Amino acid sequence: MHSLLLLPIDYFLAAWFALTAACTLYVAIDGYKNPEPVVMKWGFILVTLYTGPFGLLLYVIADKEPRPGAHEQFVRPQWKQGVGSTIHCVAGDATGIILAAVIVAWMGLPMWLDLIVEYLAGFAFGLFIFQSLFMKEMMGGSYWENVRRSFFPEFISMNFMMAGMAPVMSFLMMGHDMRAMVPTELIFWGVMSLGVMAGFATAYPSNVWMVAQGLKHGLMTERKVGIQPEKSESAESTERGAHHPHHDHNGHADATEETAPSDAIASHAVGHAASMHMHATPEATSAQIAAFSLTSLVLLATGMLAPANWVNMGLSAHEVGGLIMPPGMLMFRDTTAEAMREMSFADSRLVRARFPIDVRGDRELPFTMDDGVKVFELTASVIRWSILPDVAVDAYAYNQQIPGPRIHIREGDRVRIRVRNDLPEGTTVHWHGLILPNAMDGPSEITQPPIPPGGYFDYAFTAHQHGTYFYHPHAEPDRSQALGLYGALIIDPATPAKEVPADQEYVMQLQEWLWREGLTFPAMPMDGMQPNYFTINGKSFPSTDTIRMKLGETLKVRFVGTNNGFIHPMHIHGGPFEVVARDGETLAESARYLADTVNVGPGQRYDVIWTARRRGKWLIHCHIPHHTSNDNTETKGGGGLMAIIEVE
């Protein structure tokens, strides 16, 4: 079971929903004795369930009877009547919308169709169930008569509500955290809650107007006979008059007032009696209703269509649900699902193992012999790898280490390497720079299908070369290699004399990382994807290795361009080095040259020989200053692509 608590917003939402549960429980218990129709009790319960403390606030300030017998006068103000009408609207419409959102997410419908289905479901639930069915007794008449009378008020109210909800859902679900498209994630329900609040805000003004015009009911009082309502000053003065008309909130008088039998329930609606309010001829003209309907349609169209200018509404929860994009990543309406999956985070909930800062990668991979063939095993999986004492990246790794284990063989060896895939996506392995059978080369969908999650593939070839090589994925390498899938492949010459000798040897594999807000994204040379951490053999300075030498010794550094999309000019202090090999090919003595910096691009390798001419601490580092920092800061004199050669 994956944890739902991944980001700070998840902890906030967990607390929010706990508070929402408490608020809903209070409204349900207190509303039980509040003198109003059952449909309004449920309205406030549902709205509080969807909006938490905001629903509780509306209930307390607009509907909760402040003292016995005072409900009629308490809910009399026009703004409270508008609240009641909007509560009734939102409770029904939002329920239909949320149910539809869950279903269409499960079905995998595109976002544009999702919104249409949600609108139709919300309108249908509000009109046919919450309005016409639940209000049937108060409205009187047949069910279909109530549908006809309620159509335009529900249509106008629903349009205004969806005009507020649609852009909130579109921008937040299709924003950087697309877990919001998945109903099993807390943030999905957080977006629904925020959308309902926005919908309430946009629907409220229209409901105030419709209540005032007699098109919709507002808050109502329903109490058993024997509990007398509190009389206002105006009511007392009326009783002293010649007759006793009922006054609504606009000062209009009804000609008659019926008295219910002693065993009946009397319904009193502030402003209008419930039955009067639904049967009386509305004060709104046809032109006003038409203008309101047109305006609501314009706002609805704007809310539904405007997000398509900025986000790709053709995507579905099945395609991108659950992805989280880098905070600075810019996405557009033509950004595809494939691109989003490439740029998304390494899912922390898939981490198989965690490793502290003292665990090193690039450990030599053991093998077994099978009829003269060296047999190796590599397994790709998701791990959490410490690059600094306080920074751990979620990474893709071979054999749970970064870099992956070093494969060390000899020219002429026959090898078989079984690659198992425990990643959430397909993968392959390319043996960079090697001459081998085409079927073993590794490009996904060109020489082989990708190895599916849970599957494996056996690579078999004979090593015909010697020198510095490496291996990396060739299925979506801009993502998987950037997340840590790479390792050194060192091939010794069949004739030892062909090896350029040195007293010590150090393999240096370079990499970039994008780690933001506790999540790891594949670093890429594009806006919003630039790296902020850099590693040598899986560690950032000052956690990189210290190479210890004696005065006069020589050091062979094998620079390996496992870096994915950036060039690193690698420089060694303390005098020039001799470049003796490039891309696995040993240079003829006449072609070797002195330098103090080599540009190591992606895929390139350089073997250099450096001589310890002076005692002291000599740096080996990238000469791009940003690449020798950790998230733009320096620790103990540097960071990132920096290591120390200590000469005694």
UniProtKB/TrEMBL annotation:
Stretches for region Disordered: 229-261
InterPro entries documented for this protein: Cu-oxidase-like_N, Cu-oxidase_C, Cu-oxidase_fam, Cupredoxin, DUF4396
Organism: Methylocystis rosea
Transmembrane segments: 12-29, 41-62, 83-109, 115-134, 155-174, 186-204
Coiled coil region boundaries: none
Biased composition range(s): Basic and acidic residues: 229-255
DUF4396 domain boundaries: 78-216
Keywords noted in UniProt: Copper, Membrane, Metal-binding, Oxidoreductase, Transmembrane, Transmembrane helix
SUPFAM superfamilies associated with the record: Cupredoxins (SSF49503)
A Pfam family matched in the record: Cu-oxidase_2
GO molecular function: copper ion binding; oxidoreductase activity
Keyword Oxidoreductase: yes
Residue stretches making up the Plastocyanin-like domain: 385-494, 528-630
Name of the featured protein: DUF4396 domain-containing protein
